[in-house]
Every structure is written in structure tokens, then in C-alpha cells.
Amino acid sequence: MQRLTRQQMAQRLAKDIAPGSYVNIGIGMPELVANYLDPADEILLHSENGILGMGPSAPENEIDLEMINAGKKPVTLLTGGAFFHHVDSFAIMRGGHLDLCIMGGMQVSSTGDLANWSLGRPGEPPAVGGAMDLAVGAKKVFILMEHNAKDGTPKIVEKCTLPVTGLGVVSRVYTDLAVIESAPQGMQVIEKLVDISDEELQSLTGAVLHFPVAQ
Amino acid sequence: MVNKFVDNAHEAVVDVFDGATVLVGGFGGAGHPTELLHALIDQGATDLTIVNNNAGNFEVGLAALIKAGRVRKMICSFPKASHSHVFNQMYKEGRIELECVPQGTIAERLHAAGAGIGGFFTRTSYGTDLAKGKEVREIDGEFYVFESPIRGDFALVLAQKGDRWGNLVYRKAARNFGPVMCMAAKTTIVQVKQKVELGELDPENIVTPGIFVNRVVEIPNPQISS
Question: Which portions of this protein are annotated as coiled-coil regions (chain A) (predicted)?
């Protein structure tokens, strides 16, 4: 069984973003999703520091240190893009105006709780940024993360053991093995992305999975 | 004649007192008022509480102020960055306090202070470690956490252009916390890249009206520490 690469995971998630959506893309792996959006779809990216209509990374000769994204990397602005200040930017997030946000995850629980902001290590300064605002604010929250941690531990779990970012906030998880929805009955497998049996997928997951019933 | 222009950064920060709460604009390097912060180091005020999204980069601006031992407490959302070694070291040694606040909650707490609102309920952070000890209320079937205003004694902000009444425009993503910090402080001090005559700024495009601003100093080529 060959797991999806990070690029393939991003590409699979990108397929599910409706044209014309307003989307916030988090720092890290989610940034790869932007590479698979069709400009003709006019999917408008929001950056928490006050940009709507954010374009791709700035080429070397267009770097402007006052034109950066949430990860503080130089980016560009699409024609029609806009700037605004932090109160408005977080009104966009918290006020339910974004159709979707895509974040990385450390753990997702069977009830859609998300942990992605802290490893809870003593002595390390806590740093949350905009993660908690996004988690509660966007209409849908898609988590893009590997199915298992580097040591093989499942990242989809019955209950988060890491400090949570938000409770019951996750809509879907896109992993290197499957697309899984947080549904009223629990974690519902929408699609397997690799050649894997239901039993094996379940064995790599820390929460009970519900599989589609054969028609 | 109303004239909020002051001659230099040192004059602009002359009355910042020990123990003051100082709001510092910027997100990473964009909008960071480096020269006002350097003037504040020279001025000598200490035991400060600083509100900023981050906790300084490299050893300039806010990081230099922290390194000089002038900051008792940071209120910020994201102190960790690849170049925030000054803060990280001080934090590890227990020489600086940290109040970690979600980014949108910082913005709204400042807005509350500036707008005369005595606090607000937000869904952000409900059920997390950052909501511990805070009042929770159920509103329309959802749980909200109470957050109180953050008022500054001073705000240090960077803008693009300003006139003698203190009207301001910003540039690109350097706007970030500027407008709300201007509202939220008793004394707002702004460094602009360019002084302009009254009437040069299009009234339709003024982002911060001068009523929120007390002093403006022109620093033509500010240092950006990204």
C-alpha cells in the first residue's frame, strides 16, 4: 500500500473546493492546496493579516516586505484583491463569512474536536495565532494531515490527548489514506484514496470508522 | 492650529512612563514601528506591558526592547517564530511573563477598549486551555467565552502617510493592527513614511481619522525586520 504524497493530498482536497469560494489556507501543508486551484474558478484566498484575494508567492524581483501572508512569507495580490485591518479580518473569520478554512492537524477526535496549536510541552511558550478563531468561525473546516504520526500513532483518535483548538469544529479530514467526514454518528469514511481494506484502514485509526454501506 | 507633527521619534515617546501598557502595531515585520521602539529604548521606560501579535524578530525593534530588559509582560497571539530567539530565551529563564491570546481576540479586545465596550463574548477558545477561569455563557445554543477590553496607555503604530491632524493611510498588509491600536490607546504615536499637507489625503480613503491620533513623526525609510 502506497500512501499519497503531500502534493497528492493537497490536490485531492483542492478538488472539493467549489468555484467562487472564500477560503482561508493555514500555514504548512495546507499552503500546497493553492497550487492546485484553477484561477478560472476564482476561489478567493483570505489571509488573517488583512488580505482577501491573495495571489501566489512573490517572485524574487517582486518581494515586498509589507505584502506578506499569515506565515510572514512574501505573496502577491490578485487584481480585485483588498486590504483591511485586523478587526475586519477576524470579523471575516469569526463572523462565519468564510466558506472554508483548511488547517493542518495534530489530532482530530471522533466528535470533530481539533488539536493543532500546542504540544503542551512545559517551558515552551504557547502560541495560538489565529487557529482558534478560524476553527470556530469558518462555515467548514477541512483538516489536511497525515493519517499517522511519524511513529505510526493514529492522528484520528477517540479523544484528543493534546490541548484542543476547538470542540466539534472539524467538518472533514483529508489524509494520505482517506477522506473522512465528522458526522453525527462519528467518523464516516467518504473515500479511500489508496488500495487499502476497511480493516487495515480501521487498524491505522484511533477512532471507530463508519464505512459506506454497499448499495 | 492643530499640529500633531513632532520633530523626531525621541520627542514622540518622551512621556512613556514605567509600568505603562504599550500597544505595538505590526504583524511580523510589516507595520512594525521600529524607530519608535528604538527611541523608547533610549528614553528608558521600563516594567512595560507590551501588546503585539508577535514577540519581536532578530534583535531590532520590539526584540531589542525585550533584550534591554524593559518588558515585564507580553500579551500576544504568536510569540514563536524562527527569529524570536530573544523572547524565547527570556521566557525560558522566567524573566518575562506571557499572556497568550487568540489573534482575533486581541484585535477585538483592543476594539472594545477603543469603542467603549466593556467586554464581549466570543466562541473563540471555548473549551480550550486559553478559556480556563473565564466566564462562559450559552447564547442561541452555542457557548461563548467572556473577554475584557485591553486599553493601552500608549500605542506605537506605523503608517504610510499622515497629515498634521493625524489622518492616516496605510500600505498593503502593513495596516494590520494599526487602525485598532490607534483607537485603543490614551496616547497614540504614529511614525509615517511621509508627511503630507492637509487635504492631500482623499477623505474617502482615510483609514484612521485623526481623532484617534495624538502625535505623528516622519521617518522616511523605516527599518523592516522580517
Answer: none
